[in-house]
Write a structure and sequence with these properties.
10 helices, MetI-like fold, 81% helix
Length: 258
């Protein structure tokens, strides 16, 4: 056992060095996989956020019979395994499925659809919580001015746009780190449907550690950038809130002096 530890460390260091060479040399295979992964996740995030932000904002304000059941289902979907989503989408897109006529199985579109279905509940649930919290504080004022449910939800969502921007960034992170669903519906076809997560799994099983490590480094870098963006958004929001409080304080001082 002791004798193998240096060998393992040597293999790891050599693989890491080769991985850095692939990244620095802009290896064509690596760049192709990364660009495809970013394109799939960005498209899915755009579709999921377009629907989830509006639906979540409306759910945060609307009150109707069965709302509790809807929220229970929505919160349950937050924890749904990605392989279950992949199975459902696979069945929908298979030749005998209701969407089989599209011919999307094992394609870019199938991966986008799977990630959209996976991310949509996350965006909707988080947006609903944000809007519902702010509605409890300021919703009555908008309602007294005659704003309907949809208009009120959109106004409150815009007022909390920095918080919702954090939701969008987090949803992209959820999409790009997913592996089970895209592997099932995309097939991990080299040059067509291979993305970073599925390529890492495949190359590791094949023993091609440099490419797997290179993709892992890039994926970790993407996640790091997303976390930095979330931190920046929070700071912008804190500065905006502090500026608003200072302006309100100055306004009170001026009015009292008059």
């Amino acid at each position: 056992m002791v004798a193998t530890i240096p060998q393992l460390m040597t293999t790891l260091s050599e693989s890491a060095a080769l991985a850095l060479e692939l990244i620095a040399g802009r290896d064509a295979t690596l760049l192709s996989i990364v660009s495809r992964s970013l394109a799939v996740s960005a498209t899915a995030c755009l579709l999921a956020c377009g629907a989830g932000l509006v639906l979540g904002a409306w759910l945060g304000v609307a009150r109707f019979a069965g709302r509790g059941a809807v929220l229970t289902v929505l919160n349950t979907l937050l924890a749904i395994p990605s392989v279950v989503v992949g199975l459902v989408v696979y069945l929908l897109l298979s030749r005998s499925g209701p969407l089989g006529f599209l011919g999307w199985l094992f394609s870019f579109q199938a991966m986008v659809l799977a990630q959209t279905v996976l991310v949509l509940p996350v965006v909707t649930a988080l947006t609903r919580q944000v809007v519902e919290d702010v509605d409890a504080a300021h919703g009555e004022q908008l309602q007294s001015l005659g704003a309907g449910t949809l208009l009120r939800s959109l106004l409150l969502a815009w007022d909390e746009r920095f918080a919702l921007l954090t939701v969008v960034i987090a949803s992209f992170g959820r999409a790009i780190s997913e592996v089970g669903a895209v592997m099932m519906v995309g097939g991990n076809i080299d040059g067509f449907t291979r993305v970073m997560t599925t390529a890492i799994a495949l190359e590791t099983s094949k023993g091609d550690l440099p490419l797997a490590l290179g993709l892992g480094m890039i994926l970790m870098g993407v996640v790091l950038v997303l976390n930095l963006l979330i931190a920046m958004v929070r700071k912008w929001r804190e500065r905006g809130d502090a500026g608003a409080l200072r302006a309100a304080g100055v306004g009170r001082v001026v009015s009292s002096s008059l």
